[in-house]
């Protein structure tokens, strides 16, 4: 326990023990040019009860908005069992198992997570401990380059633009060439993909549903990748797999995504949870950790760290990656969520997302001055265009109590005045109708 001197006499006694007369002498190594030069502007000290009241007052200033935002981070209902189990001290305080076989509970949690991701994606193996969906996608691209001994990746323009930015950063450091596949009506142009997919391509990346919420022709795109000798990489929303075909069903070699929507709340940008699943033939090229199940000397079930290709654990030149930390707590939340929901529960969540999003799109598109931008099938996100600027629409909606209308023009100049709306199962019909009424008033 650290002792903090409070009286002037105690402070002088502590300074004397350090061989100093004034507090400033402790910072003599810091150049005067970068020092503040004045007292900190801090409020007076408060008792615990006062601090609590003050924080409640500050929290009361927050404006609660009904969210119709998505674009990679989604609000879903989280069953209470997730938080209840997650808060147990043996899980909540666990850290990276550097002596893994001693940490059987942590290993089992990771094993169960990997098993569920495999079942969800229809692939053979899954790893753990990836920061988020963007880095997972970038890592999968490097796996493709390593497996094919090629240095070119095709990525659809409909993939999350922030994911593509992370991929670009990775590619530059590894000498990987990136080529963007253009779009046709909000989806990947397969004719353009076929022309670009030469014998120098290592992997083809598509997102399904894509950044606009549109359903991609994943089977056809994967076939084109395979004809060129490249790997098919699918970026997926795990909740959508309650209804849509699993990547393993249409031949994808790797499936990656963001696991935040599986039992992890929206927390101002994190922590998030990336996942990678793959065909068994790629297992030794995957980054992260793989936990396996075996038996101990007494014949009892035991869990072991089967593979960990992280540079801290094997020879640096043999490592596939060094970007994996202990994401086990977020992974455990996803595991509990999936176990609690089950196959039918996840299907119900996905079904409600689909139906409510289509209801909202139909109501909003019927308003004067609103035009649907794309005509293809969509999951729980859709794009609309108005004559007003997205900034104006978003501001006016916020004044009416809604967080809605993601400005696509930020990343797609050709989609000026286009807004992305998201509807998940947590939104009620009354909230959707209220959003429609607010839009009607704004456009009038």
Describe this structure as you would to a colleague.
- With 444 residues, the protein is of the alpha/beta class.
- It folds into 2 domains: 66-74 and 343-443, Aspartate Aminotransferase, domain 1 (Alpha-Beta Complex), CATH 3.90.1150.10; 80-338, Aspartate Aminotransferase, domain 2, CATH 3.40.640.
- It contains 12 helices and 17 strands.
- The protein has helices at 8-17, 48-60, 80-86, 89-92, 104-121, 133-148, 161-174, 190-196, 218-227, 328-365, 390-399, 429-443; strands spanning 66-68, 125-130, 152-156, 177-181, 183-184, 187-188, 203-208, 231-236, 254-258, 274-278, 289-295, 301-308, 371-372, 381-385, 402-404, 406-407, 418-422.
- The chain has a 7-stranded mixed β-sheet, sandwiched between helices.
- Strand 11 and strand 12 form a beta hairpin.
- Helix 3 (80-86) runs antiparallel to helix 10, helix 5 (104-121) packs parallel to helix 10 (328-365) and helix 10 (328-365) packs across helix 12.
- The protein is globular, with a radius of gyration of 26 Å.
- The model has no long low-confidence stretch (mean pLDDT 92).
């Amino acid at each position: 326990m650290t002792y903090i001197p409070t009286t002037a006499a105690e402070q002088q006694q502590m300074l004397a023990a350090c061989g100093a007369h004034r507090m400033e002498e402790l910072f003599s190594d810091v150049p005067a040019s970068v020092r503040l030069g004045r007292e900190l502007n801090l409020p007076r000290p408060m008792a615990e009860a006062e601090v609590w009241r003050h924080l409640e007052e500050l929290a009361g200033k927050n404006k609660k908005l009904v969210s119709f935002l998505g674009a990679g981070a989604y609000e879903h209902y989280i069953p209470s069992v997730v938080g209840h189990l997650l808060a147990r001290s043996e899980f909540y305080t666990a850290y990276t198992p550097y002596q893994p076989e001693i940490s059987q509970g942590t290993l089992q949690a990771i094993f169960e997570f990997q098993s569920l991701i495999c079942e969800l994606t229809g692939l053979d193996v899954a790893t753990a401990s990836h920061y988020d969906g963007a880095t997972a996608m970038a890592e999968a691209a490097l796996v493709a380059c390593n497996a094919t001994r090629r240095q070119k990746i095709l990525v659809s323009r409909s993939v999350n633009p922030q994911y593509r930015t992370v991929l670009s950063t990775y590619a530059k450091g590894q000498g990987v060439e990136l080529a963007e596949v253009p779009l046709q009506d909000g989806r990947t142009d397969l004719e353009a993909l076929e022309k670009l997919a030469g014998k120098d391509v290592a992997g083809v990346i598509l997102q399904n549903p894509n950044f606009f919420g549109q359903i991609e022709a994943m089977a056809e795109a994967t076939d084109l990748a395979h004809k060129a000798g490249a790997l098919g990489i699918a970026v997926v929303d795990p909740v959508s797999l309650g209804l849509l075909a699993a990547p393993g069903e249409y031949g994808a070699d790797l499936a990656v995504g963001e696991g935040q929507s599986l039992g992890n709340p929206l927390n101002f940008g994190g922590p998030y949870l990336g996942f990678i699943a793959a065909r068994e033939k790629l297992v030794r090229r995957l980054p992260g950790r793989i936990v396996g199940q075996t038996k101990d000397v007494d014949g009892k079930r035991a869990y072991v760290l089967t593979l960990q290709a992280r540079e801290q654990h094997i020879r640096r030149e043999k490592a596939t990656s060094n970007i994996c930390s202990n994401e086990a707590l977020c992974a455990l939340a996803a595991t509990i969520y999936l176990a609690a929901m089950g196959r039918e529960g996840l299907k119900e969540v996905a079904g409600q997302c689909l139906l409510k999003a289509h209801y909202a799109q139909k109501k909003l598109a019927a308003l004067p001055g609103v035009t649907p931008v794309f005509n293809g099938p969509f999951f729980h996100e859709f794009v609309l265009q108005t004559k007003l600027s997205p900034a104006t629409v978003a501001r006016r909606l916020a004044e009416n109590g809604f967080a809605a209308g993601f400005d696509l023009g930020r990343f797609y100049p050709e989609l000026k005045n286009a807004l992305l709306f998201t509807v998940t199962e947590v939104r009620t019909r009354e909230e959707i109708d209220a959003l429609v009424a607010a839009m009607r008033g704004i456009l009038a």
